[in-house]
Structure formats: structure tokens, C-alpha cells
Specification:
43 strands, disordered C terminus, 23-stranded mixed sheet, 559 residues, nine-stranded parallel sheet, globular, mainly beta
Length: 559
Amino acid sequence: MFRAKDILLDNRAGGKRIGSVADTSGALRFEADTITLGARRLAVDQYDDLDLSASKGLFLFGNGRLTTEGNFTAETPFITAAGPATQKIVAGGSLQILKPKGVVTPDRAGALGASLSLQGTSVTATSDVLLPSGLFSARATTGDVVVGGDINVSGTARSFFDVIKYTDGGKISLSSDRGSVNVNKRATLSVGALAGGGSGGSLSISAAKGEVNLLGSLYAKGGLNGTDGSFSLDVGQLPQFGKLNDVLDAGYFTESRSFRVRDGDVFVGGKSIARHFDLSADAGSITVSGTIDASGQTGGSIELSANGSLTLLNGSQLTVAGKDFDAAGKGGAISLEAGAQRNGVYDNSGTLDGDGSYDSGAILDIREGSEIDLSVASNTAASSAQGRFSGTLHLRAPRTASGTEVQINPIDGLIRGASSIIVEGYKIYDLNPSLVPDAAGLITTAIKNLIKADAVNFVGTAGTPSTPELRRLAMPRCWPACLEPANAGLDPVLSIRPRRGAHRSQRKHHSRHQQRLGRQRLEFANLPVRAQERAWRADYAGEGQSDFSECPQRWLRRG
């Protein structure tokens, strides 16, 4: 054991590690009022346990890395940076940062922008970590990550003569490769900013094979003229989505929220508020009964992607409404995807029933009583001529096995203020040489011809009327009650043009995380009113129709 008033652990002398020459045994212990982790790499080998006891604080300084073959335990009331610092502690066994009894606070403010990374088979942090506008990460390779203290990377203020400058909040990352992440009731995760200025930081949590339990307090509120914080989650299952969103709402994580659920269905109830909202279900369906609110001064974004079906129930609302156009003259954007491929496999088994909807397969279903709001309050009849357009909607689902349909039910929900609605029916062409020997992984002429033939089978020959099957999308079963009068400028038109493409299949990840192969798109587009009317009438009349009073308030364009 080493004992002193102050201890510095570093390798500024540049000593080289010779590596372990024996099995680990025993313990090495350092005791002091303060312990500082300094520059360069320092390795401790041949011990089962490395213990640090710093009764008045553990400090970080310089760029360094401390590694130990066995378990690591630091008993200290707090960890902070004494100066510019980027430090990492890696344990071959468990890693614990424990808070002793009593209250001890830092006698000086920690340095700005410091970074501390912890890695062990399991990680427990009950001590306080104070890194203003800094970065804190904890990773468990086999066990759990447990947080029981105050992890504070919030923004701060600095005075420069008679000027006060505010900093943004930092970043907290908690991840477990095989276990869970647990934030206990006494814990606080702070990435916010001071009230005078600065934006909230970000909190990222990953437990792809475990659970996430957020029982403590979260804080990410931005300051004056700043934005609130961001949150991202990668988790095995998420059975209590609504409860989690209540915690995030209370903690001011309203700038962005991203959720990846590896297994199981996701039910979105209640109200979720975030300027940018992203949810994907790798091996399940998504059902929305509540509200996802990404509205604001300018329009936000919403992306929902399910390996199974995606359903908007009666009473659900997705809104990216904006008070004004953004700097690029655009409104918000919503993307909805059902039947997202996983490792090159997707469900295209849908079959239509008598009313033009699907009773099987991975289906995108926008039901009567649901609402999608893409409007911009400042939008006028002259806006499009000025290069300003309200929000866009992208609907994506597999083509059926026959290749003549897309697995999207008739759009029965209310859609407000759309400038463009794209309906994409996709198909994957797997060019893996082991499956297609003649292709050898290349996009050959034969493959190109196949893709073109499939496109013609899907939407018809260029210049000819589209198939009645595809037109059912533009004729919702609730028509005309579900059509928004504010969209009257989007005259109904159906014009289909093929778009083809294919890539080598990588067979990795799912949906948006993998290349999309051989996509074909149907687009609702903002064509000039007269062109829309001519195209619709020519196409609609192709079926012998003469009554145009019941034309739908959407249109499809092949793009």
C-alpha cells in the first residue's frame, strides 16, 4: 500500500510496459487526500485488485490511460478535472467508482471540456463526476452499468472582463454490450445549460441485449436562446415507451430523441415532444395511439420504421407543423416505413382483401381518425413561387410478392398541408454470388433488364395509365371526409414514371442501417395545377370515368 497527502499517477517518464509475467494475485492500494491521474499510459499488472482511496477528490489532468488486469475500485467523493484532460480507465475485471460517507465538495470549479471514459466487465459509479461541458462514458463488456451518483456535464459560465460567456452541456454515454443499464433513484444525469445561455447536451444509452431502467433524475434544459437536450437509446426491448417519454419530457430532452428497439413490438401512447423524433423496431411492429409532436417555429422531423407493420390508430397525431419556413424555405418532414428489411429479409406476403386493404404481411396503415400535420402557418398561395414549400411525407413499404402492389392500406387519415407525399414500394435484389452465381455480385445487363421488367410490372409502361391497384392509395375509404381543404391547391393527379436501381447486398443491420436495394418510388408531387388536372383527367378517363367530383386530394407521381 502507498500512502501520502497527494499522489500523482502518470507515465511522463515514458516507461514501457513489459507485460504480465505471472497470474494475478493480491491487491495494490493507494491512499491520499487527493489522487491525480496524469499524462500518458500507465499499466498495473499481476494484481487481482487495484484500489484508490482519495478522501478529498480524484482529479484528472492531461491525456492519459490507466489500465489494470484485475478489478479497479476508486473510493472518492467526486471526480473532476484539474486542467485540460482526456482520461480513460480500463479494468480487466469489474470497475467501481464509490462514494464514501460524508459530504465533500470540490474547492474549485472543474476545467472545461474534460473527458473521462470507464470500461470494465461491469461498471458501477455511485460517486459524483463533475465535468463542465465535458464527456463521460461508461461501458460494461459483459455485466451491467449502474449509476448511483451525480454525473454532471452541464454547461457553465466564464467571465472575460465585463463579458460573460455561456457554454453548452456536454455528453453522457452509458453502454452495456451484454447486460443492462440501471440509473438508480438517487442518481442524476445532467447535460443542461445555465439559464443565461447555451444549449442542452446529449445522453446516449445502449443495452442491445438487456434492459434500461431510468429511475433517477435527468436534466437537459437549454439556456436563453439555446435548444434543449438530445437523447438516444439502443435497447433489446422497450415495453414501457410512454413512461420513458414522460421522464424525457420532464428532463427537457426535447431537441431530438432516437430509439432503436432490437426485439419486440413498440406501442407509442401519450405525448412525445421532440423537434426530431426517430423510432425503429428491428424485429417488431409499431403502433401509435398518442401524439408525436415535432412542431415549432420551423417544422421538425419524425421517422418511424418497423420490421413488421406500422399502424396509426384513431386519435393518433404526428405533427411537424411550423410557424414559418426554415432558412432553406422548407417545412417539416415525416417518414413512415413498414416491412423494413432485416439482414436482407422482409415480409412481402401481403394479399388484398375486398375493400382494397391488406389482411396479412407487414403493412403501413394510416387509419381513419389519425392525423398527420405538415403545415406551415405562414404558407400562402404565393409561397411556392418564392421557393417555399410546406412539409413532406414519405411512405415506404415492400412490394408484394407478385410485384404489382405496395403493402400500404388506403390512406384514411387526415393529412394537413403536404407539399409532397412520396409512396415508395421497394424490392431487394440480392446479388450475393453464392445465391446468384451468374451475377458474381455484379449489376449485369441481365440484372438491369430484370429490374426494369419488375418496374414495368409494378407501375406499367411509361406514358400509360397506372394500374387500378395503385390508384387505390389515393382513394381513401373515408373520402371525402378525411381530406383537408387546406390542401386544395394539390389537385389530384396520377402520373407514374419508373425509377430503377440495385446494389450489392451487404447483409448487415436492418432497414435504414443497410443499403436499400432496387428501390422503386411512387411520389405524390407538387406539379402545376393545370398539369395535375390534365394528367388526372387523362388517366382517370382511361378507366371510362367521366365524373371527376370524387377525385382524391392526393396524387401519385413515379419518380
